[in-house]
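[audit] Reproducing an earlier prediction to check determinism. Same input, same settings, fresh worker. If the tokens differ from the archived copy the diff job will pick it up downstream; this log only records the rerun itself.
[audit] input (351 residues):
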Amino acid sequence: MLSPIGVTDFETIRQELPVLDVRSPSEYTRGHVPGAVNLPLFSDEERARVGTLYKRSGREAALLLGLDCAGGHLSAYVRQALKAAPGKRVLMHCWRGGMRSEGLGWLLSLAGFDVSVLEGGYKAYRRHIAEAWQRPARLLVLSGKTGTGKTAILQRLQTMGEQVLDLEHHAHHKGSAFGALGQPPQPTNEQFENNLAQDWLRFDSQRPVWTEDESRNIGSVTIPAGLFRQKEQAVTVCLDMPLEARVERLVGEYAGFTETGLQDAILRIRRRLGDQRCREALQAVEAGDFHAAARHILHYYDKTYAYDLEVKQPGHLVHLPAASADPADNALMLRAWAASFSHTILQPVKP
């Protein structure tokens, strides 16, 4: 059976059924529905040929060329679909919900599949994602000087059942000159948005959502404008932790990386550190004195943090002393604080 499905129902049902993305490999790589399996009807080269012919000669000519391209692969499509969806129930989409999804959906329905095709295709899904950032949320933004362990604290909050939007996890980057160390390659910006939205759309709007205080750009990806506006208007909780505790955390986190990797990261902020402090930090890494290197680096990052706090909206800042250097202790403290004050400050933020 072949039937259309709207994007809202698509988002609900895809938690249970596999999604087949029948666009070309390059389209899929640029950005796709999280968890979708690529079952391309055309290769990149074939898609280009069919698209060019459509513009020049119309739908019928493009359809015939498309049939020529796909004709020798029909059994392979069915076999791949069976591997992805052995239960023979699938969701499917192409770019606009047109010829590719209709054609492959028809084939799979002949093979006994129950196929639901997304109306408007991936384009409709992306529009749905853009609209998602307009949903008001009860955001709480966790801030703190470099080395406070904000990511570890957020992860602890998540294990405690709190709602957490982990920007750095989805960005594959920790948001500093050292942020790419030990991380997998960053996703495309489109995929970053899709992955973020998957979490965002599942949150309970009546409960707080914790996230980290990040600049608009995290490495090579950019926080969606609507989400960033909400973050800037939300309450920011600044966790204050002593310098030496932060130095210890940074040494534990970064000392295992190669000397070259650490020195390259230091050189990326050379202008901001100043020549002398940069030279001393490089020498400290070379000598294996990671504590000294961390202190030099924090000299710059602490000044940046202080400036960022100055531009926050008045009345939207809360300072809390760190209970300890232990992320679990600090997560417990933050959760208790949020529960105590939620009735007065945790109002939905409109983007």
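[audit] rerun output stored. Observation attached for the diff report: Residues 2-130 form a domain with the Oxidized Rhodanese; domain 1 fold (CATH 3.40.250.10).
[audit] end
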